[in-house]
Amino acid sequence: MARFIQHSIARWVSLHATVGSLVIPMVVWANTPAGKVMFIHGNASIERDGERIAAERGDDIFAGDTFRTQSASTLQIRYSDGGTKAIQPESTYTLESYNEDQENPEESVQSGELLRGGLRAVTGLIGRNAPENVSHKTPVATMGIRGTSFQLVHVPEGEAPPLPGMATGSYLYVESGMLSMRTDAGERIVRPGQVVFSATLDATPEFLVDGIAIFEQLEDQRRQQTRQEDESPSADTSQQAGSNTTIASITLDANTDSDAADGTFFDRIALAPVTNEQLQREQTTNLTQEQSNRARAFADNLEDDVNQESEPEPMPEPEPEAEVWIDFPPNTENSLTTIIGSDLLNGFYVENTTPTAQGSENIAGGEVVWGYWNADSPDPFAPEDTPIGSSIPFISVSDELADSLSNELSNQALDAINGQLAEGVAFNWVGGTGLISEAGNNVIPILGDSTITLASSGTESSVEVDIRLEGLGRLFGGLVTEAGSDTFETFPINSISLTHTGCESVCFESGGSLQGQYIAEDAAAIMSLIEASGDLGNYSGTGLFQRLLDENIIEPPNPQ
C-alpha cells in the first residue's frame, strides 16, 4: 500500500484557492512516488516543498507536487494506478493527495486542484474501484468522478479568457462516462458530450449548449501556438543579429553617411583598413580583366551557336508527389488514440509522417485504418528531428463511418442482434497493432481468437472482453447492467477494466482497460484502444473486432 500527503506549499495553495477547503493529514511514505512524468513538450516545471525544478521525462511525482506549463507546452503524467493526466499550456495543477490502497482498493483516494489553464484526464484503478474518493477541484467547483475521460478548463477571476465570449470560471467537458460538477449552490451530473460551466463558488453549474465548440477552439488555438513557437527564431539568435548590426554601424568612417552607405560597397570600403588600399586596387583591376575575358569568350561561343540549328532543352521530369499514408484526416472525432496521440494525430497527418507500421480493413462501405509511431518518430510540432518520446497507437474510420461511431449500442443495432443476445453476440478480432511498448521497440501480438461478447438474459445485460496475448495469457474483464438501469441493453464500451490472467512471472499487475466505439448503424464492428501497465511496462495498442454475421464462421479472418 502506498500513501501520500501533500507538502506544505501545496496545502497552503489549496486552503487559499478553494476558499477554505480542508485537507486531512495522512500517513506518508515519502520515498514512494505517485507516478511519473511520461511526456513533455516545451517547458514545464514541478514545485515541491517550495522549490521549483524543470520537469523531465521519467521524473517521479509525489502528492503535493504542483505542475506548471508555459506557453505552447504540455506535460503528461501517469499515476501508479494506470491513470493519466495531460496538463495543457499555461496551466497550474496541484496533486493534493494520492493513496492507492492495494489491500483495500475501496479505500483508495486521489484529489487535485486545477488553479488555472486546462487538463485532460483518464482515471485509473482508483477511479474504477473507489470513484467516490476521486475528485478534481478548481477555485469555484469540485468534480466528482463517475467516468474515465474528461477535459477541464479554469479561467481565474481577473485573467483575460483565452477566447472571445468566454467568461472567467470553470468549464467541464465529459468525453466518456459520467462526472458531476458541484459548487456551494448545487450539483450537476454531466454525461458524455455535455459541457457544464460555473462562474463562482456560489453559482449553480449550468449546461452550455454549444460548449464543445469552446474546447475545439481551444485545441485549435493550442496547436497554432505550438506551431508558431516551434517556427519562431530563438531570442538568442535575434539578440546576436542585433549585436552584429550595432558593431558594424559604429565602425563606419566618420565622414560616411551611415544611412546611405549601410550594407553597400561604400560601407565595406569604409570598414576596410587604409593599409589595404593598394591591395583593393589590384583586386579591382584583376577582377575587371577577368570579366572582360569572360565576356569575349561568351561572344565567340554565341556566334558559333547562331550558325547551328539549336535543339530544344528537354523538359525536366516532374517531381513525384509524396504518397499519403491515409486517405482521410484522422482526428479525435473519428479516432481512438492515447492522450499524447490526441495532441499529435492531426500533426502527423498534416506533416505526412508515415506510421512505423499500419494496416486497414474495409467495414460497412468504409475503411478502418490502424497503426502506431514509435518513440523515435519526429514530433510534428517540435524542431526538426525532435522525437515524440513515447509510442502512439491509433485507429481511425473514414468519413463514411465517422458519423455512426458511438460508445453505446443504437436502437437500430439492438434490433439487428436482439434475437441473438440470449446466446451471446460475438465480435472477433480481425486486425490491429497489438500491444506496443512505450519505446515502440516491442510488440505483444493479440491473437485472432480474442473477442468482445454482448449478452442479455432479460434481467441483466453484459459486455465481456477477452484479449488473448501471444505467450502472455489474457486481459479479461467486463460489466453487467441490471434491467431498469439507464444503460440496460445499451452495452456501453466507453471504458471496461481488464485484469491480466494466465501470466507467469512478469505481468500487467496494475491491469488495463479497453475503450471502444461501435462502427456503423447496425454495429458491424468495434474499434478499440487497449492499455495495460505493470512490471511488463506500460503498453497500449488499438484493434478492430468484427461482428460475425454467419453462424457457420468459426475462424476469424487473418489478423495480418
Number of domains: 2
Q: Structural class, from secondary structure content? A: alpha+beta
Shape: globular
Rg from Cα: 31 Å
How many helices? 10
| CATH top-level class of the largest domain | Mainly Beta
Poorly predicted runs of 5 or more residues:
1-30, 234-285, 550-560
Roughly what is the average pLDDT, rounded to an integer? 79
Q: Helicity range of the residues? A: 10-25%
Within the CATH hierarchy, at the fold level, what is the topology of the largest domain? Jelly Rolls
Alpha carbon gap, first and last residue = 42 Å
Give the biggest beta sheet.
16 strands, mixed
In short:
By secondary structure, this protein is α+β, with helices and mostly antiparallel strands. The chain is built from ten helices and 30 strands.
3D structure, described in words:
By secondary structure, the chain is α+β, with helices and mostly antiparallel strands. It has 2 domains: 2-229, Jelly Rolls (Sandwich); 335-547, no CATH class. Helix content is 21%, strand content 36%. It has 10 helices and 30 strands. It has helices spanning 8-17, 125-129, 211-231, 235-250, 258-261, 265-271, 277-306, 339-350, 399-402, 411-417; strands spanning 2-3, 35-41, 44-48, 51-54, 60-61, 66-69, 74-79, 84-87, 92-100, 109-122, 134-138, 141-155, 169-183, 186-190, 195-198, 206-207, 335-337, 357-363, 366-373, 392-397, 425-432, 435-437, 443-444, 451-456, 460-468, 474-482, 496-501, 512-519, 525-534, 537-547. The strands form 3 sheets. The protein has a 16-stranded mixed β-sheet that branches. It starts with a strand and ends in a 13-residue tail after the last strand. Residues 1-30, 234-285 and 550-560 have low confidence and may be disordered.
